C-alpha cells in the first residue's frame, strides 16, 4: 500500500535475487539449524497433511472408514467416492457404500466455474490494462484527479457494496444468470489498475517514443509494444484473479439459487448440506472436494514458482 | 498515495519532450475510450452501491416493496440489539485469535525459512492452502476434526483418552474456525513477509554480528523494525479479511452452537436473506464498514506505516 512508491522497473524474478551473502548461511551443522529445519518440516507437514487426507478418504469405502479411522492408507480401497461425486454410480450402489443417493453434477458445475472465472478474469484484466495505459502513458487533463478518485476503492472493503449490488442485479433481472455473476467484477479493479500502472511507469519509454516518431498511433503502441512488454504482470494478475474468482463463495451464493449457473465451490457447500448429518458420506464429500480443488492444484503444479514470486512482488510494491 | 501520483506526473512530463509531444495531441479522446469501462464499472458497481448502501441503512426495505425512509430507527435498533453486540464480540474474538496467531506463525516461519534456504519449492508448498477455496478448507477440516472419525480426535483419544467436539461446543467453535483460517492464510502471509526480508541488506546483519548481537537480539532489534511496513500491511490485510469471515463458518458451524460462532457477516447474511430485512442488514454493513476504516487508519497511524527505517 504505502510502500508502493518505488517504480515497478523490476520483474517478479528480481525479488528472488539473494541480497545477503550465502557464506553465513552455509555454516554447516548446528543444533539451532537442526531445530529450525525441524520446525519447517513441521509447518510443511501440517500444511500438506490435509491434502493427503482428502485423497486417502476419497479412495476409501465410506462404511469401512469407521472400522479403521487412523489408517494412513485408504480403507477398503474403492473409486466409489469419485463415482458418487461425479454422479455416475446408481442410487443403490451409492447407498450401499454409505452415500446419500444425492449426487453432484460435477461436469455442469465445472463448466459454470470455467465460464464464471474465465470470462470475469479476461474482462477485468483487459479493462485494467487499457485503463492503466491511459493513466501512465497518455496526456490528458484531469488524469491524476480521476486516478485518485478510482484509487479510493482500494481503501473500501467489499462489505458495503455487496447487498446494494445484489439489489441492483435483482432490479436488472439478472439473478441466476452469468451476466449477474460476472458484471459487477468485470470492469473495475482498483488494485489491478494501480498494479499495472506502477509497472508501466517503470518501463522505459524509449521504444514507445521511437515507435511514435516512426508514425505509430498510441493505440498501436498500446497493443504492439506496451502490452507485450507488460506480459509478466498481466500473467500474474490473470492467475491471481482467476484463483480468487474460482474460489469465490459469497457473491455466487447471493445471486444464484439454481444449479444451471452455480459454480463448483458453491455446489460443493450445497452437496455437504445434502449429506446426512448423522453419518455423512465423507468418502464422497472428500472426492468432490478433491475434484473442486483439482484445477487450482494443477495451476499450482504448473505455475507454483511463478505464483510465489508474484505474491512476494505484489507485496513489496 | 500522493507520492505515487506525483511520480507519475514527473515521468509524464519527461516523456513529452521533442517530436513525441505532437503525438499526444489526440490523447484525450483515446484516454476517454480506454478508461470508460473502468470508470463505468467504478460508478455502477462501486460508487452507486456505496451511496445506495448508506441510503438503505436509513430505510425500512424488504426488497419486494420500495424502501421507506425511517431516519435513525435502524441505528437505534442496532444499539439495543443484543445479538448484534454478541456477534461483534464473537467476531472480535475470531479476529484477535486468527490475526495474532496467524501473523506470529507466519513471521516465525518466514524468518526461519529465510535463514535456512531460498528454496522456492518450500515456499510454494506452504502457499498451497491459499490457492484452494474456503469451502474446500472448511470441508477437509470439518472431516479431520470430526468428533468420532476425525483423525485429530482419533489421535487425541489415543493420547489423552478424551475427544473434543471442535465445532459442537461453544468454547471450541471460534478457536476451531480460527485454526482453519490460520492454516489457510499462513503461507500467503509468510511469502509476503519473506519478500520483505529479502529487501533487508545483508550489511545490516553483518554489522549486528560484529557488534556481538545474538540471533534473537538481531531478530528483535533489526528484523522486526525493518520489516515494519510489510508487517503492517500483513496485519491490516488479515484484520480486514478475518472481519469478513463467512464461508468457513457457513460450511462448518452455520453460526452455532447457540450463536457461539455467529460472526457479523453471518448475522448480516441471515438478516438479509432469511428475514429479508435489507434495511437493517445495510445498517450493520455500514457499521462494519466504519469499524474497518477506523481500524485500518488507527493501525497505519500507530505503526507509522509510511516510514521504513531503511531509508
TrEMBL record, chain A:
TM annotation in the entry: 34-55, 114-135, 147-169, 181-200, 221-243, 282-303
Record keyword Ribosomal protein present: no
Major subcellular site: membrane
Localization (cell): Cell membrane
Residue span(s) of domain ABC transmembrane type-1: 110-303
Chain residue ranges for the region called Disordered: 1-27
Keyword Cell division: no
Topology versus the membrane: Multi-pass membrane protein
Sorted UniProt keywords: Cell membrane, Membrane, Transmembrane, Transmembrane helix, Transport
Pfam families registered for this protein in UniProt: BPD_transp_1
The family this protein is said to belong to: Belongs to the binding-protein-dependent transport system permease family.
Protein name as it appears in the record: Carbohydrate ABC transporter permease
UniProtKB/TrEMBL annotation, chain B:
Keywords: Cell membrane, Membrane, Transmembrane, Transmembrane helix, Transport
Subcellular location: Cell membrane
Segments traversing the membrane: 30-48, 92-113, 125-144, 164-183, 226-246, 278-297
Bilayer topology annotation: Multi-pass membrane protein
Source superkingdom: Bacteria
Pfam families cross-referenced by the UniProt entry: BPD_transp_1
Chief subcellular location: membrane
Residue segments, region Disordered: 1-21
InterPro entries in alphabetical order: ABC_transporter_permease, MetI-like, MetI-like_sf
Domain (ABC transmembrane type-1) ranges: 84-299
Family: Belongs to the binding-protein-dependent transport system permease family.
Name under which the protein is recorded: Carbohydrate ABC transporter permease
Source organism (scientific name): Streptacidiphilus cavernicola
Lineage of producing organism: Bacteria, Bacillati, Actinomycetota, Actinomycetes, Kitasatosporales
Amino acid at each position: 500500500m504505502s510502500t508502493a512508491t518505488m517504480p515497478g522497473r523490476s520483474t517478479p524474478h528480481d525479488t528472488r535475487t539473494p541480497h545477503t551473502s550465502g557464506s553465513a548461511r552455509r555454516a554447516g551443522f548446528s543444533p539451532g539449524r537442526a531445530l529450525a529445519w525441524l520446525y519447517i518440516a513441521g509447518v510443511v507437514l501440517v500444511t500438506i497433511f490435509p491434502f493427503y487426507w482428502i485423497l486417502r478418504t476419497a479412495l476409501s469405502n465410506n462404511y469401512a472408514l469407521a472400522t479403521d479411522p487412523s489408517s494412513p492408507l485408504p480403507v477398503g480401497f474403492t473409486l466409489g467416492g469419485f463415482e458418487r461425486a461425479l454422479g455416475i454410480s446408481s442410487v443403490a450402489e451409492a447407498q450401499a457404500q454409505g452415500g446419500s443417493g444425492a449426487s453432484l453434477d460435477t461436469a455442469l458445475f465445472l463448466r459454470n466455474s470455467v465460464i464464471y472465472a474465465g470470462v470475469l478474469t479476461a474482462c477485468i484484466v483487459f479493462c485494467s490494462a487499457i485503463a492503466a495505459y491511459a493513466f501512465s502513458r497518455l496526456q490528458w487533463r484531469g488524469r491524476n484527479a480521476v486516478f485518485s478518485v478510482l484509487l479510493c476503492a482500494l481503501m473500501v472493503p467489499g462489505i458495503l457494496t455487496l447487498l446494494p449490488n445484489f439489489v441492483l442485479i435483482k432490479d436488472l433481472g439478472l439473478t441466476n444468470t452469468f451476466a449477474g455473476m460476472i458484471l459487477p467484477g468485470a470492469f473495475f479493479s482498483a488494485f489491478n489498475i494501480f498494479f499495472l500502472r506502477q509497472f508501466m511507469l517503470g518501463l522505459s519509454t524509449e521504444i514507445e517514443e521511437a515507435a511514435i516518431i516512426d508514425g505509430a498511433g498510441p493505440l498501436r503502441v498500446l497493443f504492439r509494444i506496451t502490452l507485450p512488454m507488460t506480459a509478466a504482470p498481466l500473467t500474474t494478475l490473470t492467475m491471481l484473479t482467476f484463483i480468487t474468482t474460482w474460489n469465490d463463495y459469497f457473491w455466487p451464493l447471493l445471486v444464484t439459487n439454481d444449479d444451471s449457473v452455480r459454480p463448483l465451490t458453491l455446489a460443493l457447500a450445497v452437496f455437504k448440506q445434502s449429506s446426512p448429518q448423522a453419518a455423512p458420506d465423507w468418502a464422497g464429500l472428500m472426492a468432490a472436494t478433491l475434484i473442486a480443488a483439482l484445477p487450482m492444484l494443477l495451476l499450482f503444479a504448473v505455475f507454483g514458482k511463478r505464483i510465489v514470486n508474484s505474491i512476494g512482488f505484489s507485496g513489496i510494491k | 498515495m500522493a507520492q505515487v501520483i506525483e511520480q507519475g506526473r514527473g515521468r509524464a512530463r519527461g516523456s513529452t519532450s521533442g517530436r513525441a509531444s505532437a503525438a499526444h495531441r489526440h490523447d484525450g479522446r483515446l484516454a476517454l475510450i480506454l478508461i470508460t469501462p473502468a470508470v463505468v464499472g467504478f460508478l455502477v458497481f462501486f460508487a452507486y452501491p456505496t451511496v445506495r448502501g448508506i441510503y438503505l441503512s436509513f430505510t425500512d426495505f424488504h426488497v419486494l416493496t420500495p424502501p421507506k425512509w425511517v431516519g435513525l430507527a435502524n441505528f437505534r435498533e442496532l444499539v439495543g440489539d443484543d445479538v448484534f453486540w454478541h456477534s461483534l464480540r464473537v467476531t472480535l474474538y475470531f479476529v484477535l485469535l486468527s490475526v495474532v496467531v496467524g501473523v506470529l506463525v507466519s513471521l516465525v516461519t518466514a524468518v526461519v525459512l529465510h535463514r535456512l534456504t531460498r528454496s522456492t519449492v518450500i515456499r510454494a508448498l506452504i502457499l498451497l492452502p491459499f490457492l484452494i477455496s474456503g469451502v474446500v478448507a472448511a470441508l477437509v477440516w470439518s472431516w479431520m476434526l470430526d468428533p468420532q472419525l476425525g483423525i485429530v480426535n482419533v489421535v487425541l483419544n489415543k493420547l489423552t483418552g478424551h475427544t473434543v467436539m471442535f465445532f459442537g461446543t461453544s468454547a471450541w467453535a471460534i478457536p476451531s474456525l480460527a485454526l482453519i483460517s490460520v492454516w489457510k492464510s499462513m503461507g500467503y502471509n509468510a511469502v509476503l513477509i519473506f519478500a520483505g526480508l529479502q529487501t533487508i541488506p545483508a550489511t545490516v546483519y553483518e554489522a549486528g554480528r560484529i557488534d556481538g548481537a545474538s540471533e534473537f537480539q538481531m531478530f528483535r532489534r533489526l528484523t522486526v523494525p525493518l520489516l515494519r511496513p510489510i508487517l503492517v500491511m500483513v496485519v491490516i490485510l488479515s484484520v480486514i479479511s478475518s472481519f469478513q469471515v463467512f464461508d468457513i463458518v457457513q460450511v462448518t458451524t452455520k453460526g452455532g452452537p447457540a450463536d457461539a460462532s455467529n460472526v457479523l457477516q453471518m448475522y448480516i447474511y441471515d438478516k438479509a436473506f432469511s428475514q429479508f430485512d435489507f434495511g437493517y442488514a445495510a445498517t450493520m454493513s455500514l457499521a462494519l464498514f466504519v469499524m474497518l476504516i477506523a481500524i485500518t487508519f488507527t493501525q497505519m497511524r500507530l505503526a507509522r506505516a509510511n516510514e521504513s527505517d531503511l531509508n
